[in-house]
Design a protein that fits this description.
It is a single chain. The termini are far apart. Helix 1 packs across helix 5, helix 3 crosses helix 4 and helix 3 packs across helix 6. Strand 1 and strand 2 form a beta hairpin. With about 140 residues, this protein is mainly α. The chain contains six helices and two strands; from the N terminus they run H-H-H-H-E-E-H-H.
């Protein structure tokens, strides 16, 4: 059932297009949103990728105006990565479109099942966040 729900969620979210970014680039935006000022190596570690591949992802995101690279205060040779104002606006708009798509489905559910789903999702989010932070959260916060 969880696989089917995840697949249906992907279809619903697919209707809320992520253009002009790919799924990999979207992951970068989400990571930067929560870890502003990280360097390229830390971002690559968080993605499970290599610095050259991650740099190319950031190049494309910078080209569309979603990511900014700034010289680090501590070391001018190191660059820090930040979401731009435009990148933040994109994520806000994407979330609104996704929420709208989900809302139309949720409105078709009876109230008791909607309430049960909410409780279950709250527990799921708490458990997933704990696991993510235990498994890889430290890599995204260290330099």
């Amino acid at each position: 059932m969880t696989s089917e729900a995840a697949e249906l969620l992907e279809v619903l979210w697919g209707r809320a297009s992520t253009a002009p970014v790919s799924a990999s680039q979207l992951r970068v935006l989400f990571i930067l949103e929560h870890n502003e000022g990280i360097n390229l190596r830390t971002l690559a570690d968080a993605l499970g990728s290599t610095p050259p591949s991650t740099s190319r992802l950031c190049d494309r995101l910078q080209a569309v105006g979603f990511v900014e690279r700034r010289a680090a205060i501590a070391s001018r040779r190191e660059l820090e990565l930040y979401l731009s104002r435009r990148g933040r606006a994109f994520l806000t708009d994407l979330r609104a479109r996704r929420e709208s798509a989900l809302q139309s489905v949720l409105e078709q559910m009876p109230t008791p099942q909607r309430s049960a789903l909410l409780k279950g999702l709250e527990a799921f989010c708490a458990a997933a966040a704990t696991q993510i932070h235990e498994d890889g959260g430290s890599a995204a916060r260290s330099a």
